[in-house]
Amino acid sequence: MKQENEPLIKLKQNFPLTIKRLGINGEGVGYFKRKVVFVPGALPGEEVVVEAVKVQPKFTEAIVKKVRKRSPYRVKAPCPVYEQCGGCQLQHLRYDQQLKEKRDILIQALERHTRFHISEMDIRETIGMDDPWKYRNKSQFQLREMNGKVIAGLYSMDSHRLIDVPECIVQHPATNKVNNAIKRIFQDFKVPIYNEKTKKGIVKTIVTRVGIKTGQVQVVIVTAGTKLPRKEMIAAEIQKRLPEVVSVMQNVNPKQTSLIFGEKSFNITGKEFIDEKMNEFTYELSARAFFQLNPEQTVKLYDEVKKAAALTGKEKIVDAYCGSGTIGLWVAEGAAEIRGMDIIPESIEDAKKNARKHGIKNATYVTGKAEDILPAWHKQGWQPDVIIVDPPRTGCDQKFLQTLLKIKPKKFIYVSCNPSTLAKDLQTISHMYEVKYIQPVDMFPQTSHVECCSLLILK
């Protein structure tokens, strides 16, 4: 007799599967004996034979053994290490179809986490890129020494195996060129590369960022300790071979952690920052400053925020989770006043500096949480007309959403990088705010990520 909780699918079992849709991580999703099965690399509409590699009570993970019926949108991934690297998830899907699937990933999140009538909602077509390659302005490559050769790259999916990436085709060519030259310099100077197992060696990671519009490059050498032998000579060699590198920094991270940067950074040579431009704005980017990884699409995203705000010059705006103030500055021209807050003091200093530099006099920035600061302003009689928010992947703080419902701005513009947390947050405030539309924007072509700009109006 069959046991009640005996798994319907066994480990290593082979079975046929029809892929229904893409999951939030870009994997194919199908159903076998009413159980959900996740299959990386499989596409909607495909009929495949899979092998179960992980069986959980609620879901199974499987790998493709054979494709019986191919999707008409399947293409050959141009990157030679695509299947090992794990940095991209959708290179095997034609780009115009990637945009459609990303809109569908958003719809799935709304189906799962809200009670909205989705067929009646205005969910727009995803805004894509004309050229969906070579867009990333920053790379963070781990270093390792293998057979006397320095390699740099990314860890394989769900593992600690480093994949050498001599040319990443979603990276801006300047970062690839600089990384390859620095590997050679480290080899020439016999720089000791950090070894995680033996805890010996010095250099762990190389972080390269380019100002796409200015051509300036910054290199950050992340080390396990403060000591970096012959660092001035290494920096001089970098600048000799790579005149575009205007800033060489050292960051010290002694911890065994998934975080790239430690607390301390030192300037080795050149400037402490590089400049980048987006439209009429110029930004100073220091080693640890957050900046969007795809400036071309960021302009499109921020223009969507501007469109949603539809400012007339009379409105008071709150830029919550403001970072260095980029979104607020973008809309400042049409606003009577901008007020922004963030919990990171350095970001607030950057926001103030950015406002001064661009002659924006109607902006105030303070350090702290929106849910603490907004009620205080409200008590003083200051009422915002529009609140704009661009939270981290975890979404808005629940206290912030409750504050929003108390303050009741006429418009709420929510910029999100995670459809699941966006959907949950929209449901939380849906009794008081109507979702006018959601505009997906493809900030990271070839990956499963999707960014959205949502306009909500007070009912």
From TrEMBL:
PROSITE patterns: SAM_MT_RNA_M5U (PS51687), TRAM (PS50926), TRMA_1 (PS01230), TRMA_2 (PS01231). It holds the Pfam family tRNA_U5-meth_tr. CDD domains: AdoMet_MTases. S-adenosyl-L-methionine binds at residues 292, 321, 342, 390. Keywords: 4Fe-4S, Iron, Iron-sulfur, Metal-binding, Methyltransferase, S-adenosyl-L-methionine, Transferase. Residues 8-66 form the TRAM domain. It comes from the Bacteria. GO terms for biological process: rRNA base methylation. Its EC number is 2.1.1.190. The active site is at 417, 417 (nucleophile). It is an enzyme of class 2 (transferase). GO terms for molecular function: 4 iron, 4 sulfur cluster binding; rRNA (uridine-C5-)-methyltransferase activity. NCBIfam families: rumA. Belongs to the class I-like SAM-binding methyltransferase superfamily. RNA M5U methyltransferase family. This is 23S rRNA (Uracil(1939)-C(5))-methyltransferase RlmD. The lineage of its organism: Bacteria, Bacillati, Bacillota, Bacilli, Bacillales.
